[in-house]
Structure formats: structure tokens, C-alpha cells
Amino acid sequence: MRKGLPFRRTPELLKATPVLRRSLARIIIRSGFGKAEPFRTSDGKAIYPCLLGVMKTFSSQHKVIEPAAVLSTRIPLRLWQIRIIPAFLALLLTVSFVAAQTNNLQARLENVATLIRDHRIAEAEQQLNGILKTAPNDAAALNLLGTIRAQQGRLNEAETLLTRAAKIDPTFVPVHMNLAFLYVLKNVPEKTISELKEVVNLEPGNIEANYKLARLLLSRGQTDESIAVIEKVKASTPQSVVFLTLLGDAYFKKGNTEKAEENYLLARAAQNSNADAILGLAKVSQTRADAKTTSAYISQAREVAGNSPDLLYKVGVAALGLGILDEALSDLEQAVKLKPDEPAYLIALGAARLKKPDLFAGEQAFQRALELQPDNAQAQLYLGYVLYKQKKFSEAKGYLEKT
């Protein structure tokens, strides 16, 4: 502080934020004022009219200090008007400019996200490169560029960008979700689970993350962990059909058919036409050797499926697993007819034909699945097995070695 310029900290000034105190003091000190007598209140406090007016305005807008006896610095009124007001306005304009820049960046990022959704990837990437030149450590921009790289199949580059964004802003939920999806593509389930757990930790009520986490844990045999995740969600959303059905699946896998049935029935009560819940009840009936009830549930699920290829596929796979072969074949053939270019449907149909057994028809289904998806390991394994059973050993060897 420059010597000779009186500057006294009053109790009112001490109520201000440290940044505001420093800024106001700096403005006053740098303005080089001489000495002048202030106005005095009845209790003897010094008040300068112009400063009081500015501080009233600032206090009403920002609620940081009381507008009384803010500074006891002796300032000539004319010099205050000439020097303090422009300096103080410059301070406020700087804050407004930073806010405007932030809003502008947010608008640009939203526009990039729209371009990505519209599959205008080249335009989105061009805009992101421009943003990152001026804001190289913006987590949202790095997250969007990582998303683009993943869509382009450049998974390692995507991982580098997304992990960098996560380090910059560890609380940014979208980047953890994108990392989870990326690790699904890279077939690293442990890392997918880790990222989904991070999302749930940051947003306990995130339905998508909780469901994907519970389902992945269940698929990996981590049944108790899966149940713990679902039960926690169930406590806050007791009528969530997808979680009730998944919880039924988890208890069924654990061997607790009573709890499985309880949750399937709750799911069906919430949504009578839920095919997954009905198929779950069919599985429970089958464990009790109740063929009549099992068949009735399969028929109900088929009625619910109607002409939906996805639901018909589910019903067909369930019927196949329950040993109801003819119905399984009928459902899967209908699903393939409605959606002929889905490899999963063709593989299931081929597996059902092998049960018949009809090796030639099964081979055709697996061949078609590989035409659509040449690197499908399941189709390669099935085709290799069929060829081996037909004693086509040299052909079978090529497919079996790939798996």
C-alpha cells in the first residue's frame, strides 16, 4: 500500500469478501487521492456520498456488505467521480465479460452436441478443435471429442481424451458414462463396472447407471453385488418394472425361487403386459416341474409379444431354454422373418435347429449370421461345431481356431 494515503479497515468493510476488499482498496489507492474531509453521520462515522451510492447498488445485487462507512479514506468528490467510478465500472465489466465468455462457450458446446446427434461429425470436430485452441483443458469439450473418436472406431484416442477429461473434472458424470460405454466396446468389463460405480457414487439416483451396473454384475456372476445395487434403487423407486424384473432374475440365478417369484409378480402387477416378468414366472414354474403352468406363461408372453421381433426372440430363447422346442422354433423363425438382418436372431434359430436336430438348416443360419457379422465369435463357434459334426474337418478347423 502506498505510504501517506490513509486507509482504515472499518467493521463494515471487514464484512466484505476478501476479493472485493482488495479490489476496492486497489482502486482507491491507485487513484492517488489527496486529503478531504468526509461527511459525518450523527454518530460520527465517515461517509462519502458517491461511494455510498455505488456500494448500495453493489450490496443489493450481490449481498456481500452493508452500505455504511465502507471506507474512511478522505477522497475529494470531483476526483472520486473522475477516477473511482470508471475504475469500479471496469471491475464490474470484467466480471460481466467473463460471464459472457462462459455462456458463449456453453452455447458452442451445446451446438457441437447437436451436430454429433445429427451425425454431422466433421462439422462437430471442426468446432471442437476451435474451442480447444482457446480452452485446451475444458472437460466438456474433451468429452465430446472423445465421443467422436469412439464413433470413429479410434478407441485408444477416445480413451486418452476421456480419461484426461475425467482427471480435469472428476465430478463430471457424462465423461464417466462415456468411459463406461467405451470399455464395453473395448471388452474391459472391470473398467466398465468401475466407471458405472463412479457415476452411481456421484449421482445415486441415476437410473441408467444403476441398471447397467446391476445387469453387468449379474452377467459376470457377481449376484450378491447386483442384488445390493437393485435393492438400494428399489427402496427409492419401488414400482420400477425393469429393476423388479432384474431383481427377480438375480434371485433366480442365486437359487432363491421364492424371492424371484415375488419380484416377478410385483413387476407384473405394475405392468401386466411385461413379457420379461411373465417369462421369469415361466422359469420359476419349470423349476417346480409344473409343465402346464410353464406352458401357460409362455403362451401369455407370446400374446404380449405380438409382432415385435425383439419380444418374439426373447420368448423363443426362453422356450428353447425350457425345452419347449417346437414353440421355440416357431417364435424364432417369426422373429427372423420380421427382422432378417439381426445376427443374434439367426444364431438362436440355428441353435434351435441343432436341437431338432437339423444340421444343414442350422449351418445355413450360422452362415447367414457370419455374412452379416464376420467377427461374431458365437456364430463362428457354432458353425465350426456343425461342420465338425458333418465330418468337414478342414473347414471346421478354420472356424474353431478363430474362437
Give me some keywords for this one.
403 residues, mainly alpha, two-stranded antiparallel sheet, 74% helix, globular, disordered N terminus
Could you give the order of the helices and strands?
HHEEHHHHHHHHHHHHHHHHHHH
Largest sheet: 2 strands, antiparallel
Shape: globular
Mean pLDDT: 79
**Percent of residues in beta strands?**
under 5%
Oligomeric description of these chains:
single chain
Major β-sheet strand ordering = 1-2
Q: Based on DSSP secondary structure assignment, what is the total number of beta strands? A: 2
List the uncertain runs: 1-100
The percent range for helix content is over 70%
Tally of separate helices? 21
Cα gyration radius (Å): 34 Å
- The end-to-end distance, rounded to whole angstroms, is 77 Å
Structural class: mainly alpha
Summarize the structure.
With 403 residues, the protein is mainly α. Helix content is 74%, strand content 1%.
Give an overview in words.
This protein is an all-alpha fold and 403 residues long. The chain is built from 21 helices and two strands. The chain has helices at 11-14, 18-30, 49-62, 77-117, 121-134, 139-151, 155-168, 173-185, 189-202, 207-219, 223-236, 241-254, 257-270, 275-287, 291-305, 309-321, 325-338, 343-355, 359-372, 377-389, 393-402, and strands at 39-40, 46-47. Strands 1-2 form a two-stranded antiparallel sheet. α15 runs antiparallel to α16 (309-321). The longest helix is centred in the N-terminal third of the chain and has 41 residues, at 77-117. The chain starts with 10 loop residues before the first helix and ends with a helix. Mean pLDDT is 79; it is low at 1-100.
